[in-house]
Amino acid sequence: MSCLTFVITSYGTSHSVSVSEILAVRELDVGGGTNDDGRWQKMPQKLTEAYPYAFTVSYVERARQHRWRCSDVTFHCSDGVLRQQWIQTIREQLTALTSRPKHLLVYINPYGGKQQGECIYEQKVAPLFACASISTDVIVTEHANHARDHLKTEAELKKYDGVVCVGGDGMFSEIVHGLVSRTQRDNGVDQNSPEEKLVPCSLRIGIIPAGSTDCICYATVGINDPVTSALHVIVGDSQPMDVCSVHHNNTFLRYSISLLGYGFYGDVLADSERKRWMGPARYDFSGFKTFLTHHHYEGAVSFLPATDILGTPRDKTRCRAGCFICQHDGQLYSGDSPEESKTAPDVSDREYEVGWGVVRGKFLAINAASMSCACPRSPMGLSPAAHLADGTTDLILVRKCSRFNFLRHLLRHTSKDDQFDMTFVEVHRVRRFRFTPRHCQNDSELDLRENGKQLFSQICRDHPACSCSPAYSSWNCDGEILPHAAIEVGVHCQLIKLFARGIEEQPLFEDLANPQCAL
Ligand SMILES: CCCCCCCCCCCCC/C=C/[C@@H](O)[C@H](COP(=O)(O)O)NC(C)=O
Ligand SMILES: Nc1ncnc2c1ncn2[C@@H]1O[C@H](COP(=O)(O)OP(=O)(O)O)[C@@H](O)[C@H]1O
Ligand SMILES: [Ca+2]
């Protein structure tokens, strides 16, 4: 990447902008008095007379809380040829940035979150893409799974440098399913085999947050803000991410990128789906209701701990932009060199069965977070020290406890206190895990939808006036309900890439309001 920087000296302050963060450069018609986008230019008359040739550079400016903004700086010179030389040189530098997308395929979910997807895209994102000379093909989805199926079968992916998803975590999940399935099919990989090594997707995905939780955007960018996300797309960021595959009886069910939750989060989702009309507030309502019902579920969790890695789920350090642990553990796991592949556990290697652990019991919640799952509701996330791209998922087991203790545990998700430092909570960083509910009838597990209720009413008939929990909960897989309770999960290290860079450590904050500079 080019490291050319230039210094803007404005009102006595100096400001350096890396070429990699320049969005566009364009001529400015000083006489016209307005910018390309119609904004009025306040220029001292003396300056415009002495330096009538001007051009404007748009660049990324960092604001508070990981927010990025598009700022403009206008340069004036006395010579038209000199202006052209500057514009041409900057354009050449930008063209040399090969990681930047030129043509994008955009999917908009018009019904996600507060149903503002189309408006957010048209008003906040499309003008930025146009300014950066990115061309787009835009599809507003007409039904659920429209984007997934289009990507899986029809989309001419060769035409594009990336896919943009305007919506929430559920919409993002659709895009991931479309892209991952398409990539496996094109490479002859069978998704139904839980032990198959999947082929990584080449196209990056950009998320413009317009959903309810938007935790994947929040945990990879640091804020849910459409403009910030659009700018990460334009500068061509790349953030690899782990993806979990979920199987039942050697049949592929779904992929998960953020949370796989049984018990509490499964019940919250199942209840909230019936209250979609409430918008994002449905999660608060159903969360409160589920907390009061306080159901626990019996079963066995077996898991393969990740033993050859640097991080642990109780670390105080966090996965941030340029994360060393993701680079180290990701390389270790990818098995690029023959020597490394010996130490990297291949998911198909059954010898690793030896290292499996088992925990049986009654659980209020079983959560697998393959990233922190930070979101505005829980700024640290379900597993604050989880990594985006280390090839592991954090398996969090919350055993049956009192309502009071469970509330203490939940409330710690909203503060800096350690939610794992409780006697009824354990957490393991794992590569694979399986869950078998207690009432599961071996391989021919009951289909939850059809028989779950029947079984529950049977149990309750046997125990009149009981307040016992139903036999099964459901799995919340990134906001979708899975049809089975018995599942097998494997992490696929760095299977997808986002137009993001991870949360930046210390964002610079500078105020530079519309500076004017002479060359
Ligand atoms: C009593 C106080 C309790 C506060 C607990 C706060 C914990 C919040 C942790 C949320 C973890 C979110 C993980 C993300 C899940 C999304 O995939 C899913 C779907 O999101 P979407 O509707 O598509 O944006 N959302 C939920 C809530 O299940
Ligand atoms: N045009 C559409 N009509 C109805 N549902 C859709 C449409 N497009 C996508 N969906 C579905 O809407 C669900 C929720 O979308 P999402 O964007 O994640 O919003 P939210 O965060 O509010 O759940 C997803 O499961 C997705 O499959
Ligand atoms: Ca991970």
UniProtKB/TrEMBL annotation:
One of its GO terms (cellular component) is membrane. GO terms for molecular function: ceramide kinase activity. Residues 99-250 form the DAGKc domain. One of its GO terms (biological process) is ceramide metabolic process. Pfam families: CERK_C (PF19280), DAGK_cat (PF00781), PH_CERK (PF25382). SMART domains: DAGKc. This is DAGKc domain-containing protein. It comes from Oncorhynchus tshawytscha.
